[in-house]
Specification:
The chain has one domain (27-200): Jelly Rolls, CATH 2.60.120. Helix content is 19%, strand content 45%. The chain has helices at residues 2-25, 186-200; strands at 26-28, 36-38, 57-62, 65-70, 86-91, 97-117, 127-134, 140-148, 155-173, 175-183. The chain binds calcium ion (CA).
Length: 201
């Protein structure tokens, strides 16, 4: 009986340690300007967002349609861009949460940007956008929630990772994003620059 109890304690201690480890892998940090930036101002193919951040990032919708919008004109989100004129929007139908997925060619150590969602005068749209972070092996390394209210405009959110992040998803009803930024480790940056130089020759 005592042995069983001891084993249970060991399992519990390990579980707590694992949870603490996971909690430590992502950390919210102050706004920063990373090596890579995407403001969606120069997107050449609105239908395939595969060459963002100078080739470091691509965006896709998970059961959602993505589009780059000119916020100076009427748009579904009733929003202006948070930077420049254009922003990224996701749609999955009325009242249905849409997931935007960003995949990096090389895992990043920092990521952030300005995030928002569709707003309409007199309509309560406040809520938490959920971010999920995955490592290079596709394992979830953490989640975060960013509260965004019903007023036009976005909320900046920035993270640093102790295990590098290959993929990020964020989910809300009609989410939007702009001014995304990311940084690689110095070693990864060299690798990326070598790879992109090779590709352009
Ligand atoms: Ca922009």
């Amino acid at each position: 009986m005592e042995t069983v109890l001891k084993r249970m304690v060991v399992v519990l201690v390990l579980a707590v340690a694992a949870a603490q480890l996971e909690a430590a892998m992502i950390k919210r940090v102050a706004p920063f300007e990373g090596t890579f930036f995407e403001g969606f101002e120069q997107v050449t193919n609105n239908a395939a967002l595969t060459n963002l951040m100078a080739g470091l990032a691509s965006c896709a919708g998970v059961d959602a349609d993505l589009t780059v919008q000119n916020g100076n004109y009427f748009n579904l989100w009733d929003q202006h861009a948070f930077e420049g004129a254009h922003f990224l929007g996701g749609a999955a139908g009325y009242g249905t949460p849409a997931t935007i997925e960003i995949t990096f060619a090389m895992p990043v150590r920092k990521f952030g940007g300005v995030f928002g969602h569709r707003v309409r005068p007199g309509v309560e749209s406040a809520g938490e956008t959920e971010f999920v972070f995955y490592d290079a092996r596709g394992r979830e390394i953490g989640r975060d929630h960013v509260f965004i209210d019903s007023l036009p405009g976005g909320v900046g959110a920035y993270w640093q990772f102790t295990r590098k992040v290959k993929r990020v998803t964020f989910t809300y009803v009609h989410p939007m994003a702009d001014a995304l930024t990311a940084s690689l480790s110095p070693v990864q940056l060299q690798k990326f620059q070598r790879a992109t130089r090779g590709a352009s020759q």
